[in-house]
Amino acid sequence: MWFTFILLLPQLTLSAHCPSGCACNNRGAAKCIGDISDIPPLDPKTTFLLLLQNTNIKVLKDRSFQSFSLLLRLMITHSAIDTIQPEAFYGAPQFRSIKLSSNALSVFPPKVFSEQSNLEQLQLDGNQIVSISSKLFEGLVNLKELDLSKNRISQLDADVFQNLTELIYLNLAGNQLRNLPKMLFHNLRQLESLVLSSNRLETLESGSFDHLSKLCFLSLHKNQIREIPPRLFWHLPSLLNLSMSGNQLQYIPAESFYFLPNLTMLTLFKNPLISLPDQLMGYMPRLQELYLYDTSLVTVPWNLFANMTNLRFLNLHLNEKLNFLPKDLFCCLPNLNKLSLKYNDLRALEPDLFSNLTSLEILMLNDNKLESLPATIFSNTPRLEKLDLSCNHLKYLPGDVFTHTRALNVLSLSGNSWKCDCSIMGIAEWIRDNPRLVNDSDKGVACYEPYHLQNHSLQTLTHAELKCGQVVSQTMIMTTSIISTQVPATSTPQSSTASSTNARTTATSTAPSITSTFATTASRFSPTSDHIYIKQGNDYNNDLAFYEKIVLDNGPEIVHNNYYGGWVYLWSVPSTGPFSGFMTALYIVHLVTGVVLIVATWYALYRLHKVMWMLQKVTMGDNQRIMTRRVRRFSQTLEEA
Predict the structure, then answer these.
(1) Average pLDDT over residues 394-418
(2) Which residue, 550, 575, 600, sits at the end of a domain?
(3) Number of domains the chain contains
(4) Is the dihedral of CA 4, 10, 16, 18 positive or negative?
(5) pLDDT at 475 (0 to 100)
(6) Beta bridge partners of 551
(7) Mean pLDDT over all residues of the chain?
């Protein structure tokens, strides 16, 4: 008992000197809350920190803290203070921190802090301050942190901060500043963080940040900046984080972001940017996050990200007019982990667009207008884990488009306009084989057309439902053998599937023999009376590429066939329509041309024959004269002999 009493004695002694409404501890901290209208009478020899919160104190009187010779930190917050007398802090030069946040202060006496040469932290945020005297901070030569945010300051004198040469952090956010004097920050050579967000800034003076060589954090977001001068950031070599989002920028001068080698984060979102210059970004080997969304960009320069080899997160989404991405846009981002292209206006993507994103893990392509994707677009993204293709206009996807995405574990495909014909079977079979990867298969990964298959789940589609391998286009049929006998149609066109099946069965039983084993290409259209149907054999292990018989049922008349390279090509012409008229006209032209050529050939042969006859006649006459001469000479020789 005595031992416990000895341990509690310091606390009991301290509590004896702690006024009502306050809580004190043995480390010299006192917290007072409630119905307090003046500084409470605490023990000045043991109080190092004083926190007054939600009190009724309205006025800080002169020399209110003179007796607190050891008080280092003062916090009066969420109270009703609206007046500070000129000598309120006189007699307490030892203060290191003063926090007067969230009160009703509007005006400060010009030299109220003149004795606080040791003050390091001053927080005046959340008040009603309208203006600040240029002499208010004159004595604060060691001040390192100044927070004036969430006030009503509309203007600052150019020399108001000139004595704060040790300042590291300055927060002016949430005021009503419309412009900043060019020389405002020139003496703040130690400044590392400057927050100017949520003001009404429209322009920035050239050279405003030229002397802030140690600045690491600069926030300009949520202003009304319409333009920035060239080279505004060129003298900020230590800058790590630059935020210019939520402004009115339509254009950015060329080379604006040069000489920022240490930048790790850049935000430009929510600006009505129309275009970007080709030479905008300098060498940024440490940049890891870039936010360029909610703009009016239609496209971006191909080399925009070329100097960002260490980029990890790229947010290029919510650009409602962005409809084209250059082929080499992501050429130099080997370390990119997340790429967001959602909510853009993309209609198509280059086959090699992602070919250099070997570290990509998350890709968001949802809510665009993509109708299909190249088969090789993901061929070099082996680490891709999450892919969102939902809410596009996708009708088809190549069946092997995800072959190389072996790390894929979350895929979203819902909200697309899938066209369920034979060309969809490749991706449908992939979905059926990888059901755990498609996380939204129960939310609308279903047929959009044709009508009779609408809302039919892709993963349950079968070749029989689509008549894949049974319907071949009327234009061309390719087989591995020559058809020995043409099969006539044996029935009229049927309107139902059952009737068509019966017609095919009849044709198969009544048709003359056809050479076996035919390879075909399936039609992309639903069966009609103009198509050629193929009956699958039962002895071929259900392989949809090979068939035992081919039956021409209710199909068009075969007008031509060719045999080439082991394939037979059968050609047909539709009975009606523009194509039929064109082919008929072409046939007539060919026929007339053939007749003309035949007549011309006959005439040429006739002329040639006549010429040859004349030449032969001349030749025979010459030969006769030569023989006559020889006979005469021989006779003369005999007579002379």
Answers:
(1) 94
(2) 575
(3) 3
(4) negative
(5) 37
(6) 533
(7) 83
Say how many C-beta atoms besides its own lie within 10 A of residue 355's C-beta: 18
Residue 392: inside a domain, yes or no? yes
The residue count of the chain comes to 641
CB 365 within 8 A of CB 342: yes
Q: Which tokens is 564 given?
A: 């080439």
Which DSSP string corresponds to 359-410? T--EEE--SS------TTTTTT-TT--EEE--SS------TTTTTT-TT--E
Which neighbouring-strand residues pair with 195? 171, 219
DSSP 65: T
Give the H/E segment covering residue 75.
strand 73-77
Q: Which domain holds residue 392?
A: 346-466
pLDDT digits (tens, 9 = 90+) for 164-183: 999 999 999 999 999 999 99
Dist. CA 36–CA 316, nearest whole Å: 54
| CB neighbour burial string for 298-326, b if at least 16 within 10 angstroms, e if fewer | ebbbebbbbbbbebbebbbbbbeebbbbe
pTM here?
0.71
Confidence of residue 57 (pLDDT cuts 50, 70, 90): very high
Report the candidate in 42, 47, 48, 46 with the shortest Cα–Cα distance to residue 20: 42
Q: Are residues 492 and 473 in the same domain?
A: yes
Q: Are residues 416 and 483 in the same domain?
A: no
Alpha carbons 428 and 434: distance in angstroms, whole number: 10
Backbone angles phi, psi at 282, to 5 degrees: -90, -165
State how far the Cα of 75 lies from the Cα of 124, in Å rounded to an integer.
Answer: 10
> By mean pLDDT, which of 22-36, 260-274, 339-353, 478-492 is the weakest?
478-492
